[in-house]
Amino acid sequence: MNSFKVGLIGLGNVGSRVWHNLLTHKELLTKKSGKTIEIKKIAVRSPQKALKVGVPQERLTTDWKEIVDDPDLDAVVELIGGIDVPYEIITQALQKGKDVVTANKALLAFHGHEIASLASKHKRRILFEASVAGGIPLLQAIQDGLVANRFLMISGIVNGTCNYILTEMTNGRMSYADALKKAKEMGYAEADEKLDVSGEDSAHKAAILCALSYRFWPKVGEIYTEGIESVDPFDIQYAGELGYVFKLLAIIKKHQGSKEVEIRVHPTLLKKDHILSSVSGSFNAVIIKGDIVGDQLFYGRGAGGDPTASAVLSDLVELARYPYVECAPRLFFADTESEYKVMPISEIVSRYYLRLNVVDKPGVLASIAEILGKKNIGISSVVQPEVSSFAQGVPLVIMVHDAKEKFFQEACLEISRLPFLKCKPIVYRVEDFHVQGE
Ligand code: HSE
C-alpha cells in the first residue's frame, strides 16, 4: 500500500484532533483513499504539550521549515492561524512541490488570489474545506455538487462563536461576556476572539464563498462588516417580542442582470419561523440558492476541534486519492479579471429595525414619521414598549418596509439631530433572503 506523507504545522485545538482522528480512523481512511495517510512530522511551539497529546518525540520539531523543506513529504497541513507565518509556510510549501491543506480563512481572504496563482504555477493543489463552516462540506458542494448552477445567493451563519453567544443571550442564560468566555473554553473562538465578535472572521469566510461561487475575490475592506459586540440585550429581547431572532449573518447575493455582488456581514433580525432562526449554539447553516437547483440548506457543526478536523481529513483523503492533474477536482483558480464588483452597502435594499431613545412627549412620533416619509420609507409598525426604568428617555421601536440603505441612513442622520433624541439611533437590518429576478 502506497503511503501519503504529511507534515502538520500546528497542534492546537484542531491539529491535535487531526492527529487523534487520523490514528483512530486509520484503517477506514486507508480503505477510502487507497493510501496510508501518515503524519510524519509535526511542527509545534511547545513540544511538552505535544507529548501530552501522545505524539512521539521523534516526529516533533519546533521549526516549520524542516517540514516545508522535507523532500519526502507529499503535503503540508497548516493549522497555526494568523497571516504572516502561514503565508510563508504555504507559499514555500507550494514552491517546493507540496500540496497544501489549510483552515486559514484570514490568509485566504487576503492572499487567496495570489496563493491560487502560485498553486497553479507549481501544479500543486491547495484545499481548505475547514476554512468555512467547520465540518460542513460546503466548499465541496459549491465546487462539485452544485457546479452546474449560477448562484443567486449564499447566506447564513458562518461563525460558531457568535452564534453561540447570541443563542445564550437570546435564551437569557448568559451575558455576552460569560458566553464569550464559554465559547473560548469550548474551543470555538479564534485565538484572537475579536476576529469572531467583530464579524471579521465571517467576512473572511464570505470572501472565500464569493471567490468560489463567482470566481471573484472581493477585497476584505470592501465587505461591509459589523460585529455583535454592541448588540444590546434589550434589542434581543424586544425583537423577540416582535417575533424576530438575532443572528450574525454573512449575506452574499447576486441580483439578476447585475454585475455587482452584495456581500455583507452584520447582526440581522430573522423571523422566528425562518429555518435559520432555529440554528443554535456553535452550529452553522448556510442557504444556497442556485438557479437550477433552487434552495439548498447546509447545516452542521461550524466550529470546534473535531468538526474542523473532519474537514481537514477529508481534504487529505482527496489529495491522497487525486494527485495534481489538470482536471483534478476542486482546483483553486486564479482568474485575473472578474466581471463582478462589490455592491456598495449604500445601494442594498433591506427592511430595518430602528430603536430610538426619545423624550416621552407629544409630537415626537410625528416628527420621525415625517422624516421617514420624506425619504419614501414606509413604516410597518411602531411600538413604544412600556419599560419601568430606562437609562435614557423611553424606547421607541420602529420597523420599516424595504428601503434603500442610503436613504434609510440619511433619514437616521436627520432623526439623530432631533432635539428629543437621547442617543444615537440603533439600527439592525431585517432579512427575508429575497433576490431580485429570482
Ligand atoms: N472561530 C470560528 C468560529 C472557528 O467560531 O466559527 C471556525 O471557523
From TrEMBL:
- According to its UniProt record, in which pathway does this protein act? Amino-acid biosynthesis; L-methionine biosynthesis via de novo pathway; L-homoserine from L-aspartate: step 3/3; Amino-acid biosynthesis; L-threonine biosynthesis; L-threonine from L-aspartate: step 3/5
Which positions fall inside the ACT domain?
Answer: 353-429
Enzyme Commission number(s) of this protein: 1.1.1.3
List the InterPro entries hit by this protein, alphabetically: ACT-like_dom_sf, ACT_dom, Asp/hSer_DH_NAD-bd, HDH, HDH_cat, NAD(P)-bd_dom_sf
Alphabetically list the UniProt keywords: Amino-acid biosynthesis, Methionine biosynthesis, Oxidoreductase, Threonine biosynthesis
Q: Does the keyword Cell inner membrane apply?
A: no
Top enzyme category: oxidoreductase
| Entries under SUPFAM superfamilies matching the protein | ACT-like, Glyceraldehyde-3-phosphate dehydrogenase-like, C-terminal domain, NAD(P)-binding Rossmann-fold domains
Tell me the CDD domains matching this sequence.
ACT_HSDH-Hom (cd04881)
Q: Which domain of life is it from?
A: Bacteria
* Family under the similarity heading: Belongs to the homoserine dehydrogenase family.
Tell me what this protein is called.
Homoserine dehydrogenase
Q: Which organism does this sequence originate in?
A: Candidatus Methylacidiphilum infernorum
